[in-house]
């Protein structure tokens, strides 16, 4: 769910061309994995409410930093769609083997707005015009295709997706709405009111959330029968200034790390849902278990992350070969380019070290558990 592709993709180049010793040290720091950076970041930013972390280890609350702070989820919200898919598949309401037209998926695809996710997913699929529904769902989770996500909102039903929030008892979770069609609202406003760039930002900031969501849904339904042309998509991209992207990012569905650790526990314990639901859910959420190395370490594990130019989030769960269970959620907002780059660089190594090293786990608990 990344819009500012040109910024994020340019991080390394920016660092390489920073001159002087300070620039070199920044580049070296960026290239070197440092799991403890995550702890440092959480401690530094906890007071301003822009970061939250919750970790549960063997049913014990290990870390709770701003666990009730609502922050934008970015693509981590797609976990809810995966759960809804698995429930409907288990109930026989949808057929995971049903073939889906790639053209129908592409109705919701906006180039340069997802970090290349949709194209990367299609590139590894057979070069065919139809793909199974289950692969569309897997592409939503593993590759984070926004086009697949919005397509699935129609298949699953937005009301059913939001009912899943109630079933999971997520009291602080925002309503879920289309994530791609909402990007057309700035273009729509400019056409309606002939606004300048500054006026457009002000109008977007002033729009209340009910109108914002209703416009997104109306555009979404319109695209199903009359999708944008290539030229219209190119014109849309011109309206997505960083100020507009910030409005979009801030208004993405939000929730808390407490809620998402609770979801991770339900995925990890293999007992909350029926066995049939897990049969459809695990192949989607646990695609990292296709790695032989991960299979050596874990009985099962799954995760979903998300990002915008300002946000980085992840929710994960794992059971290792010794039956130890971990659930973790980390949300950060209002990030600078360098902060996001360093978090992305170090988050995976933080997770792996926490999962495999007892001394590090205890250090995390000691340094963050009291927040």
Strand order of the largest sheet: 2-1-9-8-7
**C-alpha-based Rg, rounded:** 20 Å
- The geometry reads as globular
Characterize the main sheet: 5 strands, antiparallel
**Distance from first to last alpha carbon:** 30 Å
Uncertain parts:
2-27
Report the β-strand fraction as a percent range: 5-15%
Give the helix tally: 20
Question: How much helix is in the residues?
Answer: 40-55%
Structural class designation:
alpha+beta
Order of helices and strands: HHHHEEEHEHHEHHHHHHHHEHHHEEEHH
Count of structural domains: 2
Mean pLDDT: 90
Number of strands: 9
Descriptive report:
The chain is of the alpha+beta class. The protein has two domains: 34-73 and 254-368, no CATH class; 95-250, no CATH class. The protein is built from 20 helices and nine strands. It has helices at 5-8, 11-16, 20-31, 36-45, 78-90, 102-106, 117-124, 133-143, 146-156, 158-167, 185-193, 197-206, 209-225, 230-237, 242-250, 257-269, 275-285, 292-297, 337-356, 358-368; strands at 51-57, 60-65, 71-72, 99-101, 130-132, 254-255, 298-307, 312-320, 325-332. Strands 2-1-9-8-7 form a five-stranded antiparallel beta sheet, sandwiched between helices. A two-stranded antiparallel ribbon has the order 3-6. Helix 4 crosses helix 19 (337-356), helix 5 packs across helix 9 (146-156) and helix 19 (337-356) crosses helix 20 (358-368). The protein is globular. The protein starts with a helix and ends with a helix. The model is unreliable at 2-27 (pLDDT under 50).
């Amino acid at each position: 769910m990344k819009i500012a592709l040109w910024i994020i993709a340019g991080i390394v180049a920016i660092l390489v061309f920073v001159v002087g010793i300070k620039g070199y040290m920044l580049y070296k720091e960026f290239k070197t994995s440092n799991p403890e950076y995550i702890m440092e970041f959480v401690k530094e930013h906890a007071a301003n409410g822009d970061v939250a972390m919750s970790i549960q280890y063997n049913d014990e609350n290990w870390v709770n930093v701003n666990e009730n702070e609502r922050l934008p989820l970015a693509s981590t919200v797609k976990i809810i769609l995966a759960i809804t898919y698995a429930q409907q598949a288990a109930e026989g309401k949808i057929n995971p083997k049903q073939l889906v037209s790639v053209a129908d998926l592409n109705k919701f695809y906006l180039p340069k707005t997802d970090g290349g996710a949709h194209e990367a997913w299609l590139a590894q699929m057979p070069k065919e015009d139809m793909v199974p529904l289950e692969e569309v769902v897997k592409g939503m989770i593993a590759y984070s295709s926004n086009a697949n996500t919005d397509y699935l909102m129609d298949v699953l039903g937005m009301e059913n997706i939001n009912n899943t929030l109630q079933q999971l008892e997520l009291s602080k979770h925002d309503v879920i709405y289309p994530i791609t069609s909402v990007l057309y609202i700035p273009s729509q406003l400019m056409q309606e009111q002939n606004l300048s760039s500054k006026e457009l930002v002000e109008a977007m900031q002033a729009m209340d959330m009910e109108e914002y969501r209703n416009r997104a849904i109306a555009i979404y339904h319109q695209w199903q029968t009359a999708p944008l042309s290539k030229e219209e998509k190119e014109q849309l991209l011109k309206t997505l200034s960083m100020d507009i992207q910030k409005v979009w990012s801030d208004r993405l569905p939000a929730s808390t790390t407490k809620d998402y650790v609770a979801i991770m526990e339900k995925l990890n314990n293999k007992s909350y849902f029926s066995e049939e639901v897990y049969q459809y859910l695990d192949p989607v959420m646990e695609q990292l278990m296709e790695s032989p190395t991960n299979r050596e370490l874990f009985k099962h594990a799954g995760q979903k992350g998300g990002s915008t130019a300002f946000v980085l989030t992840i929710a994960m769960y794992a059971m290792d070969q010794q039956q130890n269970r971990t659930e973790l959620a980390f949300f950060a907002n209002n990030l600078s380019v360098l902060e996001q780059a360093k978090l992305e660089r170090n988050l995976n190594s933080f997770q792996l070290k926490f999962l495999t090293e007892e001394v590090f786990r205890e250090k995390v608990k000691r340094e963050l558990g009291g927040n």
